[in-house]
Amino acid sequence: MFRRKDSLILISILILAFVAGIFVYPQVANRGVDYLNDNLRLHLPSVPEKPFVLGLDLQGGVSLVYEADLSRIEERERSQKMEELRDVIERRINIYGVTEPLVQVQGENRLIVELAGVKEVGEAIEMIGETPYLEFLESRTEEETMEILEKQESEEEASEKDPFFKPTQLTGEYLNRASVRFDQTTSEPRIELNFDSEGAKLFEEITKRNLGKPLAINLDGLSIVDTTGDGRITEEDRYAPIVQDEITDGRAVITGNMDVSRANEIVRRLNSGALPVQIGDPISQRTVGPTLGRISLEESLRAGLLGLIGVVLFMIVFYKMPGFLASISLAVYVTLVLSLFKLIPVTLTLAGIGGFILSIGMAVDANILIFSRMREELKKDRSFGGAVQEGFRRAWPSIRDGNITTLIIALILFFFGTSFIKGFAFTLGIGILLSMFSAIVITKTFIKIFEGSRIEKWKWLWK
Questions:
Q1: How many CB atoms lie within 10 A of CB 92?
Q2: Which residue, 19, 92, 127, 136, has fewest beta-carbon neighbours within 10 Å?
């Protein structure tokens, strides 16, 4: 018999499905609200409309390819530096509100950046270009300076080397935090930099070997210690700042010709993430128009709908009443998954939709295992309630093992795959978890409605 506990579960499922359905497709509910407000003079609030978050391949956007300068990086460290570059640019883009950008390393020194919803290439390049490259440079010897200057004057060699300073290993990747402070004597703004433990060690070594010498601080190739205001290092700048003492606490101070606004701007850029290696303009750029994205979305939805209809027809034809009930359960399952995609939110790409559709197949597979077991029990003349209980009990180990195995694969893909693969793995993982709930709770509850009813006696519907 359908007990009180089962009734509460059924009511909870129906309420959850109703709320999820409104959240997924609020337009229908809002039309009803508008009708009641217009005809009955009510003042019912509208349901908030939250759109799905779509990726580049579904809503259009910009795809850029950058090439990093790894000439100063040792070969064994290049892979690590590229991963650090990827992380920094991804964080920087997120500050501008671009949801789930695709940033991945390609080959040894190339970086692919895909920004969904960004229609202007210039806007995308500006976002990434705003990410600063901070570096500390130490003085060259007089011999090195003279040699470079002579070559530049005689044009024997087109050298772009700075004649006065040379790079050190200390760059923005070791920066923990930047902040604006004011000089207690002059009240002029200055920037304080705090490095991590490795950066503090490098800074100590640099200051130790450059006592009494100038130390240049460059941001995107331009000097922050700027007495002229043009951003370039001049002969006067070579003498400011001078390393007075060996600094062991990992703290550096930037002073120069800057007002509070300029100091805050520099700090904002530094705290948003300084690049571990230098990149220039993109070597390749491509714009995916919204029309192409819309076509991809429509084709994806059409394929998913046709697949769902095919699955429902298969379930009803081969499993009759259990198949029909499982199809209703499947509709509830799809509604719940889509509502979670909106709630989290999940950035839907073609790969993500593929993972979702695959999870539907997993949900159907669980139902098939249950119904096959039920049929076997009914053929043994077991009671309807006993067949339902035994069918679910005997099918559960296979459902559990199959779904957990797939879930483990999804987790591996999510943690070790690229952003494209992560989208597939994430939607698949969510779908698998809810598919087990759908099969074991929702489908079982729907079937138990008919326990003790007239329809239970129609054996041809259940076998």
A1: 23
A2: 19
